[in-house]
Amino acid sequence: MIEPELLMQLVEFRRERDWEQFHNPKDLAISLSIEASELLEWFQWRTNEDINQQLQSDRRVKLEDELADVAVYLSYLCHDLGVDINKVVQAKMVKNAAKYPVDKVKGRADKYNEYS
Prior knowledge:
With 116 residues, this protein is mainly α. It has six helices and no strands.
């Protein structure tokens, strides 16, 4: 995830601009959702072939910018809430492994409560 040095750069960038006043958890979560939606626009109405072509074009930069925006807002939100993203992702993987045992779900897209 975001390296500690980069996170400190983000926090300092925000502090220098006095933007903490706007970055309460609610508004950071809203901004994260908005940026994720902008990321979705990059894929909207495109086939896999279209997407692959765009990945090889100068439009890739727009995708990278949207991914960065999502990562920045998620980083601010985790920082401000005192959440260690690496730790919670690791804990979620343990839960997912229990919900989705390989022998039951390999090659399937069913939700955990739909497979038998």
